[in-house]
Amino acid sequence: MQLDVADSDLGDRLGAGGQAVIHDLPGLRLPDVPGPLVYKKYRDDRAPRTHDMLRLVQLREGLTGADRARLDAIATWPVRLVCDGPDLRGVVLPRIPDSYFQPVTLPGTGASKKLVREVQHLFVDPAIGRRTGMPEVTREQRLTICRDFAAALDFLHGPAMDVVFGDINAKNELFRLGPDPTVMLVDCDAVRPRGAVTGGLQLNAPDWEPLGRTTLNRATDLYKLGLFVLRCVLPPGSQTSTRRDPVPGLLDDAGTALLTRALSPDPHDRPAAGEWRRYLSLALGPPAFVFDPPGWADLPVPMPRLGPPPVVELVLPDLSPVLSLDVPALDFEPPPLTGVTAPATPPATYHPLPTPPITLPGLDPGDPEPVDLTDLFLPRKGTP
Question: Nearest-CA neighbor of 11 among 34, 31, 41, 33?
Fold first, then answer.
């Protein structure tokens, strides 16, 4: 769970913030972590407690193989600690994949640079984005990003992880475009297990504070998920990044109801991340492609493209060797039947049955005159 990282192991400096500096680790590979790694080296007196980070590393190591793969697909999760005795110096993380970077032209200088696509880019006026080279994002892509973020948060809130992400903001979620737009969560060393007592408070970014003064918990995650959906789907502009109230007509009636509940001051009324995932899945495609059995968590990201099952070629066994076998002829003759005489069959004789003549009462059979049936069927005059 711990590694020794020397200065000679460090590659390029990839980024820096108020808490830490990120360095590439070009020569390091770990058997349980796919892809390249980076080192997040904390500044003096800014490192979290060793125990808190150790708990996150152990949480990942305790997952099943499938759940660990899902976590690695959606988050730059701490995988190893770097310590100096009992003191935490930094953590080793998966490197952000190239698909989450965008080549841009820096204004004023004209220089080219790769920037990570932070969610805040979805809130910027498209005219500004075009000047730097940021692509325009369609409404369908925005809904897909919201769906995949909801799916990722649903996984973190689920039984496999049971954590509070906490600091959801415009920089801690990245997005990618292409055939399968999706999201990745960063700064996951601030995540805390639900109900755990930690050495420091989880923080809120400006304009992402939850309603009221409260410790960050699952309900505050769900409030910030509502802000995420609202701000991603709103037409980008100067006020997009600060909006907090539901906008009529932004979504259909079901979506507006979810958004109203998510941004409600009542924390118990906020829809779970799984409700958002199901709603957005239905909004993006036909219901026939949504599979949500009870107790089964969806693939958070990337969401699969479902289609008809593959055609499987049925291979039958080759029966030609059996069919070509030569069956040997019988090497004997049946014995002749002797002393048995079949009884003679007499010829069939036809004997017609006698047919009695039909004689109507009161009539002479030899009378050649036509028969008048009136007297037979009609009563005579004077009779009742």
Answer: 41
Residue 310: per-residue pLDDT: 55
Angle CA 11–58–198, to nearest 5: 95
At 372 the three-state DSSP class reads coil
What's the first-to-final CA gap in the chain, in angstroms? Answer: 123
3-state DSSP call for residue 84? strand
> What is the Cα–Cα distance from 270 to 272, expressed in whole angstroms?
6
State how far Cα 8 lies from the chain centre: 42
- Chain-centroid distance, C-alpha 78: 24
* Residue 79: how many other CB atoms lie within 10 Å: 20
Question: Can you give the length of the chain in residues?
Answer: 384
| C-beta neighbour count of 369 within 10 angstroms | 7
Pull the structure tokens for residue 279: 């709603």
Look at residue 188 and give its three-state secondary structure: helix
Place of tokens 């009462």: 361
What's residue 63's pLDDT?
Answer: 98
Report the alpha-carbon distance of residue 132 to residue 106 in Å, rounded.
6
Residue 181's pLDDT is what? Answer: 81
Question: Are the beta carbons of 59 and 193 closer than 8 angstroms?
Answer: yes
Give 51-102 pLDDT, tens digit per residue. 999 999 999 999 999 999 999 999 999 999 999 989 999 999 999 999 999 9
Helices (H), 246-286: 253-262, 273-284
3-class DSSP assignment, residue 75: strand
Residue 165 is predicted with a pLDDT of 96
Positions in the chain short of pLDDT 50: 288-303, 306, 360, 363, 365, 367, 376
**In whole angstroms, what separates CA 15 from the centre of its chain?**
32
DSSP 286-339: -GGG----TT-----SSPP---SPPPPPP-----HHHHTPPPPPP-S-PPPP-S
Distances (CA, A) of 315 to 164, 312, 319, 323: 51, 9, 12, 18
Residues 6+ apart with CB under 8 A from 97: 35, 176, 184
| Token code pair at residue 114 | 């790769």
| 188 within 8 A of 78, measured Cβ to Cβ | yes
The residue assigned the tokens 């925005």 is 142
